[in-house]
């Protein structure tokens, strides 16, 4: 019987694979130490039943089944179908389930096993996501072989604009050192020419001498797949990884005046007359000493460096030895700018108003260019043409070979500080806040680009794109085809001190101590590189390296960031498909580069730098402009910044928000109206027309407006005494709110509440006792739960109130009874006379609920507030109980009008927040950038709001005062018609009768 059982188990067809059957093991990612993403398509789960058991089969069962099989094989198609149908009708549900599990795998077929290679590759060519291709290569041997075809990766390189590696482009060393990406033609060719260029870059057997060091340090990448992998990993490291090294340059705070990054050196000039030379990893090589005063200009070319400064000398150095080869004298004032036109010719510009052309081989002056009437501040060279900018408000176009002025470019009203020149067009940035574009052939001004509000001191031109940086802290990206802005980046809190961009990213440094990386195509922030410092002097980068010079703890330091992937990931052999084996298990699949979140091996610094926190950027959202409809009422989706939220024991809200153009304009109108109303209250208080307490919310408008646009009128809102904006959004009029502040009879609380007590339907104003509104709000939420319906209570309090005991008692009751309460701390950073950090041991107020989930929100972005409160409302509607929200915001004024607000914080801090993170300016920037409205329409809204508030304030001031009689003290206590007959007084004379 046992022999028959074994025979039957061998003859019977096996069922579908089950968990007990051996399957190929998933690869273990050797770099991240975690399993890779599931293959595409993911394997279907096996059935849960056991294998068929033939041990209890009867002796005659095999003979019967054999005859049945013979009969079935002799049947035609119709007979087979009828037989199967009859058998299936006799089956139980469990048996039918077995049949289903047995048949399903037999009906599936891998199309790539039957289709020809050409058709398979054609199908794969429609995939744009490299992660999908990488996972697909793990499905089977056949899929892996197909995806090893280089044409697939060639197409992907073109789609992702990975035309050529920057480090493989043939260009002179002086251009590489100053990293001028406008000399490259990335992404500006048709597909054929792009492919040809890419093919040339990847099949080249040698690299120029400029890049010998880098080529020797890394395996040469020859295939499109390896090229794509290298570029993908570099881009990933720029987004959230990289390794950095910090070096102290000086023990004092010497100002860095110039920085150059070449393939061999990092060169730093300072105002203490020294020039420091480092290798590309930041290791000190030598110090060039010879200048006796500050060095303000320098330019490298291969192993030669030309420098100039306040001592009026131009010096020529050998970087490999540190020897000064020539000292060129002739200028009579500070040398302010230097460029080289070729390996033998340098041109210097000076405060003595002249330019000098030098032969650095012989040390002789070849020509002196005279014509400017004030200091020469900047110059640029292309071929035989040099363009100079001066404090005399003109730029001049010179012929180097002829030594004469070809054109004088006039039009600016003040000093010119920056020049960009591509051979055809000249861009000049001036103290008059404008940027002008000139035709170098005719000297005519082609366009005036306006938008900066202060000195434009940073310019870079590349193809048809111009990027500018100003002392107003903003960076702007312009189209030179249409002469209009593409992106307006609120980059820094103070002057932009350094600026550079390539085809992918913009890197800016500012005197606020930050280095920021931006996505050139979308204008979205990518990350901050340098840890917070006192100031950033200079920044320079190339494809896999970034160097920043900063002031930290009163010392000048250099941070060198490397974004090069580990060499083992770029080994060509590791990416080749393994040879087929006739027997044995499937060999290990090649390591997938696209399943990695590249941080740089062993880099704790990178992990810390990549950690996300909530931003207070009021304009951090973005949208695909092609999805914005023409109609004002048709919805579209925006994408919030990844830094909009932080969560505690909670999944984050969706980072997409559905809005319409009308909603965006309504939110803008509401915030402008609230701001105008608060400014009017400020004025009335200073005129001593408003007496008593007055707490303004200027700067916090996004919280009130965002909340109201996320809830319904059936919901309740209860706030602290900083409540004017909420009262307006809940339905109060400007007239009634200002009237209440003035103590007038027609005020929103009949002149009896003032700033601290305002009420309207669904709104319960502030409470004089700090934090007392929180348990009252819990009571409102209890009433909502008791009466039923999809309603919620928004309970607001300040960071100062968050330490009060009644707040925690309210938390406890709300969680105990699972109330629909959205507790919200308006964290504006400061309480009465002190910062939150000095009054609270835990300033993450969204975690204060302990057993209640929490959500931290960018309270300066009205869109993030709206999205978060919508999410909170849905949370309560699903009977999940309360949430603790924290709105990270900022008040521009004091705690109250009696608090100046500048004794515990600096005026510079307030101004920085006003100029960079203002909620109204942030939404306005979105509306303009996304084409929701034109600037004229927004100006009309501003004017309408201003006029409306002025009219309402005038009407409020004309309201009558309350009668100065004791009678009014007893009015408005009870709902009319529900009053008792009388209220007992201390004496019979004080008894008040209502009727």
Automatic annotation (TrEMBL):
EC number per UniProt: 1.2.4.1
InterPro entries for this protein: DH_E1, F-box-like_dom_sf, F-box_dom, PDH_E1_Alpha_Subunit, Pyrv_DH_E1_asu_subgrp-y, Quinoprotein_ADH-like_sf, THDP-binding, WD40/YVTN_repeat-like_dom_sf
PROSITE patterns noted in UniProt: FBOX (PS50181), WD_REPEATS_1 (PS00678), WD_REPEATS_2 (PS50082), WD_REPEATS_REGION (PS50294)
Cofactor(s) this protein cannot do without: thiamine diphosphate
Family: Belongs to the WD repeat MET30/SCONB/SCON-2 family.
GO biological process entries: pyruvate decarboxylation to acetyl-CoA
Function according to Swiss-Prot or TrEMBL: The pyruvate dehydrogenase complex catalyzes the overall conversion of pyruvate to acetyl-CoA and CO(2).
Compositionally biased spans, kind Polar residues: 1-12
PANTHER family, A to Z: PYRUVATE DEHYDROGENASE E1 COMPONENT SUBUNIT ALPHA (PTHR11516:SF60), PYRUVATE DEHYDROGENASE E1 COMPONENT, ALPHA SUBUNIT BACTERIAL AND ORGANELLAR (PTHR11516)
Domain F-box stretches: 109-156
Region entry Disordered, spans: 1-53, 180-199
CDD domains to which the protein is assigned, alphabetical: TPP_E1_PDC_ADC_BCADC, WD40
Biased composition annotated in UniProt, kind: Pro residues: 34-44
Keyword Repeat: yes
Keyword vocabulary terms for this entry: Oxidoreductase, Pyruvate, Repeat, Thiamine pyrophosphate, WD repeat
Protein name: Pyruvate dehydrogenase E1 component subunit alpha
GO molecular function: pyruvate dehydrogenase (acetyl-transferring) activity
Organism: Corynascus novoguineensis
Catalytic activity: N(6)-[(R)-lipoyl]-L-lysyl-[protein] + pyruvate + H(+) = N(6)-[(R)-S(8)-acetyldihydrolipoyl]-L-lysyl-[protein] + CO2
WD repeats: 288-327, 328-368, 369-408, 409-448, 449-481, 489-528
């Amino acid at each position: 019987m046992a022999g028959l059982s074994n025979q039957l188990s061998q003859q019977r067809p096996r069922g579908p694979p089950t968990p007990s059957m051996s399957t190929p093991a998933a690869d273990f990612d050797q770099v991240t130490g975690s399993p890779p993403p599931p293959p595409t398509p993911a394997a279907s789960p096996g059935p849960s039943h056991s294998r068929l058991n033939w041990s209890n089969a009867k002796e005659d069962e095999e003979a019967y089944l054999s005859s049945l099989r013979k009969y079935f094989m002799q049947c035609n198609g119709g007979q087979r179908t009828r037989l199967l149908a009859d058998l299936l009708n006799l089956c139980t549900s469990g048996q039918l389930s077995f049949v289903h599990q047995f048949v399903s795998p037999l009906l599936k077929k891998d199309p790539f096993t039957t289709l020809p290679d050409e058709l398979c590759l054609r199908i794969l060519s429609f995939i744009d996501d490299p992660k999908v291709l990488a996972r697909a290569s793990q499905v089977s041997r056949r899929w892996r072989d197909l995806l090893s075809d280089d044409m697939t990766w060639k197409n992907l390189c073109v789609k992702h604009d990975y035309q050529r590696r920057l480090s493989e482009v043939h260009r002179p060393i002086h251009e590489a050192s100053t990293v001028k990406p406008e000399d490259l033609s990335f992404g500006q060719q048709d597909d054929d020419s792009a492919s040809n260029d890419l093919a040339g870059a990847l099949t080249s057997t040698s690299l120029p001498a400029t890049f010998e060091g880098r080529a020797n340090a890394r395996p040469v990448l020859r295939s499109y797949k390896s090229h794509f992998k290298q570029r993908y990993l570099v881009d990933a490291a720029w987004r959230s990884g990289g390794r950095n090294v910090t070096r102290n340059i000086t023990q004092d705070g010497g100002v860095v005046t110039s920085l150059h990054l070449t393939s061999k050196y990092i060169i730093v000039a300072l105002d203490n007359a020294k020039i420091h030379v480092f290798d590309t990893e930041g290791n000190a090589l030598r110090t060039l000493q010879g200048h006796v005063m500050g060095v303000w200009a320098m330019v490298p070319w291969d192993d030669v460096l030309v420098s100039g400064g306040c001592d009026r000398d131009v010096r020529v150095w050998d970087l490999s030895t540190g020897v000064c080869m020539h000292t060129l004298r002739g200028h009579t004032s500070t040398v302010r700018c230097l460029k080289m036109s070729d390996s033998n010719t340098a041109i210097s510009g000076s405060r003595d108003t002249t330019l000098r052309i030098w032969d650095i081989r012989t040390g002789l002056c070849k020509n002196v260019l005279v014509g400017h009437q004030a200091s020469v501040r900047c110059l640029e060279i292309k071929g035989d043409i040099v363009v100079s900018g001066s404090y005399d408000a003109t730029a001049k176009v010179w012929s180097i070979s002829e030594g004469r002025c070809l054109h004088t470019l006039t039009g600016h009203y003040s000093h010119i500080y920056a020049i960009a020149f591509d051979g055809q067009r000249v861009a000049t940035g001036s103290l008059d806040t404008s940027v002008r574009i000139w035709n170098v052939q005719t000297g005519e001004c082609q366009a005036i680009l306006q938008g900066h509000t202060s000195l434009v001191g940073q310019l870079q031109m590349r193809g048809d794109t111009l990027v500018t940086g100003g002392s107003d802290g903003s960076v702007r990206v312009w189209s030179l085809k249409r002469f209009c802005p593409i992106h307006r980046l609120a980059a820094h809190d103070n002057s932009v001190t350094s600026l550079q961009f390539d085809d992918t990213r913009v890197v800016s440094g500012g005197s606020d101590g930050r280095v920021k990386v931006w996505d050139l195509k979308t204008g979205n922030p990518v990350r901050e590189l340098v840890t917070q410092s006192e100031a950033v002097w200079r920044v320079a980068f190339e494809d896999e390296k970034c160097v920043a010079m900063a002031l930290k703890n009163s010392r000048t330091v250099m941070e060198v960031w490397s974004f090069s992937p580990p060499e083992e990931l770029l080994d060509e052999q590791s990416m080749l498909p393994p040879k087929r084996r006739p027997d044995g298990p499937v060999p290990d699949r090649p390591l997938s580069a696209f399943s990695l979140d590249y941080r740089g091996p062993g880099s704790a610094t990178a992990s810390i730098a990549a950690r996300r926190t909530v931003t207070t950027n009021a304009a951090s959202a973005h949208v695909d402009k092609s999805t914005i409809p023409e109609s004002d009422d048709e919805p579209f989706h925006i994408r919030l910044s990844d830094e909009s939220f932080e969560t505690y024991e909670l999944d984050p809200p969706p980072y997409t928000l559905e809005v319409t153009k009308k909603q965006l304009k309504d939110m803008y109108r509401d915030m402008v109206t609230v701001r105008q109303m608060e400014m009017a209250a400020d004025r009335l208080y200073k005129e001593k027309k408003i007496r008593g307490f007055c707490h303004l919310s200027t700067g916090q408008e996004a919280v009130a407006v965002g909340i109201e646009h996320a809830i319904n009128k059936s919901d309740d809102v209860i706030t602290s005494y900083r409540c004017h904006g909420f009262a307006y959004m809940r339905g109060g009029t400007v007239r009634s709110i200002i009237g209440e502040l003035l103590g007038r009879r027609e005020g929103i609380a009949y002149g009896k509440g003032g700033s601290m007590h305002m009420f309207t339907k669904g709104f319960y104003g502030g409470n004089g006792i700090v934090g007392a509104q929180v348990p009252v709000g819990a009571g409102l939420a209890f009433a909502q739960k008791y009466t039923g319906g999809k309603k919620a209570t928004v309970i607001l309090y300040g960071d100062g109130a968050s330490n009060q005991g009644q707040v925690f008692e309210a938390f406890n009751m709300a969680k105990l009874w699972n109330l629909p309460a959205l507790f919200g701390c308006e964290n504006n950073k400061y309480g009465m006379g002190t910062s939150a950090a000095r009054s609270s041991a835990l300033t993450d107020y969204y975690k204060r609920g302990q057993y209640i989930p929490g959500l931290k929100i960018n309270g300066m972005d009205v869109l993030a507030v709206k999205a978060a409160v919508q999410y909170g409302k849905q949370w309560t509607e699903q009977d999940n109980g309360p949430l603790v929200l924290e709105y990270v915001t900022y008040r521009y004024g004091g705690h109250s009008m009696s608090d100046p607000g500048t004794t515990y914080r600096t005026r510079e801090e307030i101004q920085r927040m006003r100029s960079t993170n203002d909620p109204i300016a942030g939404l306005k920037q979105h509306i303009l950038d996304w084409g929701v409205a034109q600037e004229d329409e927004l100006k009309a809204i501003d004017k309408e709001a201003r006029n409306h508030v002025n009219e309402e304030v005038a009407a409020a001031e004309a309201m009558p005062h309350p009668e100065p009689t004791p009678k009014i003290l007893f009015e408005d206590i009870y709902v009319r018609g529900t009053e008792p007959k009388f209220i007992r007084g201390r004496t019979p004379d004080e008894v008040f009768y209502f009727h």
